[in-house]
């Protein structure tokens, strides 16, 4: 393949990727699916997030793929809390792998940030970890 053909192919792939992203690529591939359940309110003292194996629909007939999720859903329950509202949740690791929860974009104490081996030790299989913080 010549350099010009390779460049053209690369451009075609990039252009196709852009169209797929603009057109809801993940929804087209994995199906639109339903929304994750919402966990709302101020009483989160007993909130348990169980990491485990589950499945998710793939676009097409009877197409399911194995995935990891929380409480049997993918991406997991939507949790809504307000800035300054105390929050607690227990992560139960039902996986055969280490895991953590990283709270993308939420300003939390470093020890609660969920970056394994950096801000906290990973949660071992069949172990649990209590996250407790008040978002700043």
TrEMBL record:
Pfam families: Cu-oxidase_3
GO molecular function: copper ion binding; oxidoreductase activity
Domain Plastocyanin-like: 63-134
Membrane-spanning intervals of the chain: none
The protein's name in its UniProt record: Plastocyanin-like domain-containing protein
Organism lineage: unclassified sequences, environmental samples
């Amino acid at each position: 393949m010549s350099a010009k053909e390779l460049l053209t192919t690369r451009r075609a792939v990039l252009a196709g990727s852009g169209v797929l992203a603009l057109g809801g690529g993940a929804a087209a591939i994995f199906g639109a699916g339903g929304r994750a359940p919402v966990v709302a309110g101020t009483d989160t003292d007993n909130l348990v997030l169980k990491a485990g194996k589950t499945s998710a629909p793939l676009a097409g007939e009877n197409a399911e793929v194995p995935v990891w999720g929380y409480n049997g859903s993918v991406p997991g329950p939507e949790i809504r809390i307000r800035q300054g509202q105390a929050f607690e949740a227990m992560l139960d690791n039902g996986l055969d792998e280490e895991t953590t929860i990283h709270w993308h974009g939420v300003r939390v104490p470093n020890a609660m940030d969920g970056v394994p081996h950096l801000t906290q030790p990973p949660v071992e299989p069949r172990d649990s970890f209590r996250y407790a913080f008040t978002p700043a």
